[in-house]
Write a structure and sequence with these properties.
CATH class of the domain at 1-86 and 193-240: Alpha Beta
Largest sheet: 6 strands, mixed
Shape: globular
Radius of gyration: 17 Å
Order of helices and strands: EEEHEEHEHHHHEHEHEEHH
CATH architecture of the domain at 1-86 and 193-240: 3-Layer(aba) Sandwich
Number of strands: 10
Length: 240
């Protein structure tokens, strides 16, 4: 589904991602784990094309490496072109449109890709609270509801593959359970997921494989269950 070779992300003189290679196969949940500042979000930005490879959007930011999605080299594609192909990122911090209603935010998710009428019932089935509050403004929602909306908006784009950046950040344990249950349902629907998550244990429990980053470099990769059972590895790299 996704193959990344020698990915480098630079912010001026700072190299945030240092030549990493990884892959996501069909039907998998793959986690990228590591401490704050390890380069996890930058990895997703590089794959999503959020940092312009030609330097037009961010003149001091550079992405290098090869990104192949569904057998097609998309390394030079813009973010919008990658979205139209179904490579969808749900970013950290939710980034909903605060002055729009829930329903209007979901419509925005289907703007470049996806059929609103076809997808809206699916999103509401995953997040019934969004249906109950569909005319409510996004900025009036609780943190958990805003996260549901952000994921729902991403699903409105009918992802071929979904990337999520810290979906459980700032949520209560009950809401974390709810979000992770949805991710499992998405996997069962055949949507592969590339997941960046500080909650390493929860992430590993639902993942097939995982990559561990340290200061921008992949230092370990393995089956998620193997990492979950390796106490020395968890202590050395994940602080667990």
């Amino acid at each position: 589904m996704l193959e990344v070779q020698n990915l480098v992300v630079k912010y001026g003189a700072v190299q945030a991602v240092k030549g990493n290679s990884f892959a996501v196969r069909e039907g998998e949940i793959v986690s990228i784990l590591g401490a704050n500042g390890a380069g996890k979000s930058s990895t997703l930005f590089g794959v999503a094309g959020m940092i312009d490879t030609r330097g037009k959007l961010f003149s001091k930011d550079v992405v290098e490496g090869k990104i192949v999605f569904q057998g097609q080299d998309i390394s030079d594609y813009s973010n919008s072109k990658r979205v139209k192909m179904g490579l969808i990122l749900c970013p950290e911090g939710r980034r909903n449109f605060p002055e729009l209603t829930i329903k209007e935010n979901l419509k925005m998710g289907a703007y470049c890709r996806g059929d609103f009428n076809k997808k809206i019932d699916f999103v509401y089935s995953l997040f019934p609270r969004l249906k109950e509050r569909q005319i409510q403004l996004a900025n009036s929602l609780s943190g958990g509801e805003q996260q549901m909306l952000a994921i729902g908006r991403s699903l409105m784009s009918d992802p071929v593959m979904l990337m999520l950046d810290e979906p459980s950040l700032g949520l209560s344990p009950v809401l974390i359970d709810e979000v992770f249950a949805v991710l499992v349902k998405l996997k069962e629907k055949g949507i592969p997921i590339l997941l960046v998550e500080q909650n390493a244990i929860r992430s590993l429990k639902i993942s097939d494989r995982a990559y561990i980053l340290e200061t921008g470099k992949i230092v370990h990769e393995d089956k998620a269950q193997t990492i979950l059972n390796d106490e020395k590895l968890k202590k050395a790299y994940l602080g667990l």
